[in-house]
Amino acid sequence: MLPSPETCARWKQRKFVRQPHRMVIGLLVCFVAAIYALFSGEIEAAKLFGILTLIFLFFYALANYIVWKASQIETDC
Description:
Layout: H1 5-12, H2 21-39, H3 43-71
Helix pairs in contact: 1-3, 2-3
């Protein structure tokens, strides 16, 4: 299910996806925290931050997929 035709037309004009800074920052912070927890021996914390990193990565990939599909739709979508 894709967003509205107006949203599709607006997204089609973009050359690349501009993700919210909070999503990218959250992804990086969780990844760094998972690596730090892994090297400091806190396995449970590393698992938690690893799962959070995967959640952020999933939503980042989903947003990129939607924009990629929207770019293939005709302008009168």
